[in-house]
């Protein structure tokens, strides 16, 4: 049953057009972190979320304006020699891989050699990326020995596309990294993943016995869930996708236990419900809506879960999509959250920390997933 109203769809269509019309590569209105910092925009995962969502929209409706927007945006950042404006390989930052996933389709369609060269540059980072003793990528060079759930979304879809195009032998490594996260970071009793893991067990935020962080942060679980379903789709007929399928199901069954029964959304700190200061957060909820609806479409989840996904999507729109002075806005987005480093002792993984981070409107960490979920809503009709 399709419960998403035409009014909601019309509002979202207007919202997407506004985001595009008011943005340039130098200053996209959806990158609130860049706007607040006052710095020049560079290659980053926030824009990557938006580019991925708009390219997905193009692949649904074949309206060339979406492809052209993405191509113009990325063209600004990729130089003719394949180097990338604002990108530093030596930072070994998995976040900076995310935007590269759109390069494969851009290269396929435009045949611009610079996109192929940029793909090779980003892969060279992953090839040299430091790893934990279990074999997973460090989240960043400054976060040594650490796995963050976010990192699986940032790197693995690009890594999978690279493997499928150029070196299928890499697929075993990709699947093992997902398996490691499931084995180490998934609390089977609660059905939730901890945000981070320190293999050295030495960081101030890490449990000295397990190396795990203290809390279950919604968006980190959302990133991981989206990574699972996106990689599953890319693997298509590869027998190895069965490993992803089991992990994905356990992940979805776990998170859905915490859906708010009235608002059909999820809390910033997932298992703390309406504890004082906690709030229903839109970006992570949108990721779960997207993953559920896509999981149904790909046959990983039973058809009965479609209504669950649609209710979550509509719940976000009802709660946080609103009009102000004729302009639509998406509210309820946690601006950012992380763990450490040592100079940031407040980023300690506690409930108090996660609810202290700023809440903003229209950031692509929420907008991008909402558009991706919207695409799945349209596919479900």
Gyration radius (Cα, Å) is 19 Å
Uncertain segments: none
| Helix content bin | 40-55%
CATH domain class name: Mainly Alpha
**Helical stretch tally:** 14
Number of domains: 1
CATH architecture: Alpha/alpha barrel
What's the rounded overall pLDDT mean? 97
* Largest sheet: number of strands, sense, barrel closure: 2 strands, antiparallel
Report the principal-axis shape: globular
DSSP strand tally: 8
CATH topology: Glycosyltransferase
What is the first-to-last residue Cα distance? 9 Å
Strand order of the largest sheet: 1-4
β-strand amount: 5-15%
Which structural class should the secondary elements be placed in?
mainly alpha
Q: What pattern of helices and strands is seen along the backbone?
A: HHHHHHEHHEEEHHHHEEEHEH
Question: Any overview of this molecule?
Answer:
The chain has 381 residues and is mainly α. It is built from 14 helices and 8 strands. The protein has a single domain (6-27, 134-380), classed as Glycosyltransferase (Alpha/alpha barrel). The protein is globular, with a radius of gyration of 19 Å.
């Amino acid at each position: 049953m399709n419960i998403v109203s035409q009014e909601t769809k019309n509002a979202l269509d207007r919202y997407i057009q506004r985001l595009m019309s008011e943005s340039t590569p130098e200053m996209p209105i959806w990158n609130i972190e860049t706007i607040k910092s006052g710095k020049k925009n560079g290659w980053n995962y926030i824009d990557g979320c938006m580019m991925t969502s708009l390219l997905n929209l193009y692949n649904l409706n074949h309206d060339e304006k979406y492809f052209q927007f993405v191509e113009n945006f990325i063209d600004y950042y990729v130089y003719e020699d394949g180097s990338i404006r604002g990108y530093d390989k030596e930072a070994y930052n998995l976040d900076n891989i995310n935007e590269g996933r759109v390069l494969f389709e851009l290269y396929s369609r435009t045949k611009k050699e610079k996109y192929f060269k940029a793909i090779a540059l980003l892969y060279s980072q992953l090839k040299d990326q430091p790893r934990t003793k279990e074999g997973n990528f460090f989240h960043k060079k400054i976060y040594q020995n650490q796995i963050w759930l976010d990192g699986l979304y940032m790197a693995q879809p690009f890594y999978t596309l690279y493997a499928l195009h150029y070196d299928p032998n890499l697929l075993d490594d990709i699947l093992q990294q997902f398996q490691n996260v499931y084995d180490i970071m998934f609390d089977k009793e609660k059905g939730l993943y901890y945000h981070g893991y320190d293999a050295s067990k030495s960081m101030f935020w890490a449990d000295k016995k397990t190396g795990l962080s203290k809390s279950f942060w919604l968006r980190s679980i959302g990133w991981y869930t989206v990574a699972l379903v996106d990689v599953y789709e890319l693997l298509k007929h590869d027998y190895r996708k069965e490993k992803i399928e089991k992990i994905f199901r356990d992940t979805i069954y776990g998170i859905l236990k915490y859906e708010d029964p009235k608002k059909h959304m999820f809390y910033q700190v997932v298992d703390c419900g309406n504890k004082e200061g906690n709030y229903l957060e839109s970006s992570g909820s949108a990721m779960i809506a997207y993953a559920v609806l896509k999981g149904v479409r790909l046959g990983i989840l039973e058809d009965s879960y479609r209504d669950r996904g649609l209710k979550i999507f509509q719940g976000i729109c009802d709660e946080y999509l609103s009009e102000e002075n004729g302009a639509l806005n998406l509210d309820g987005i946690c601006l950012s959250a992380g763990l450490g480093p040592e100079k940031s002792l407040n980023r300690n993984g506690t409930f108090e920390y996660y609810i202290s981070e700023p809440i903003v409107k229209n950031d692509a960490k929420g907008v991008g997933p909402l558009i991706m979920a919207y695409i799945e809503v349209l596919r479900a009709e």
